[in-house]
Design goal:
Elements lengths: L17 H13 L8 E2 L1 H8 L3 H14 L3 E3 L3 E3 L5 H25 L2 H19 L3 H18 L3 H12 L2 H6 L4 H20 L2 H26 L1
Antiparallel strand pairs: 1-3, 2-3
Helix pairs in contact: 1-3, 4-6, 4-7, 4-10, 5-6, 5-9, 9-10
Amino acid sequence: MQGPLSTGQSLIQRRGLHQAVADRLREAIVEGELAAGTRLNERLLCEQLGVSRTPMREAFKVLAGEGLIRLLPNRGAVVPQMTIDEVVQAFEVIAALESLSGRLAAERATPAQIKKLLKLQADMEQAHAAANLSRYYALNAQIHSLINLSADNPVLQETYATVNARLQALRFRSNLDKTKWDKAVKEHALIAKAFAKRDAARLAELLAAHVTAKCEIVVRLLEADQ
């Protein structure tokens, strides 16, 4: 059953912007506020975010296109729940895509992109030091997306975005263990270093290992849930 969705200071303004609603719902899904298996109550969400049904329905379409929710004919929408086998299979694919992105990005990244990644890394380390997981994960996702973008391959970028969208909530959850989170930060420091040095083989290896480690953590968490 869907509980109340906290809004804090980020109450969606009545701007008629479905993208703003989609962004808020995406955040709630990634951070587990709307957990896998949750049936989305359109009326309740409209009340909580202060919007009408039109932008909410448009936001549902956006998130469904990303694979973050599943639209049910005449029954609203639900946050899909993956089986452990599906999770492992998706992580196998994303590990390969991240590795390929790293190999190509090391060769094709612009100096501006390298500079931007190093800045993101520094900001992410500050968020980690402040124990701000929400900000940390947002910066983390930007780093992975930037590496993928720097590969300069639109087909790879589209495929990566499609598969990665299904795993965002699980990747976020893998950082709830402080020890694992600390380890992930150290891995990212090595990734940033290899990116800056344009070490294609090293970057590809680090990214694949990083994602594989995430998969192992997630599987253990899912098994514990069961």
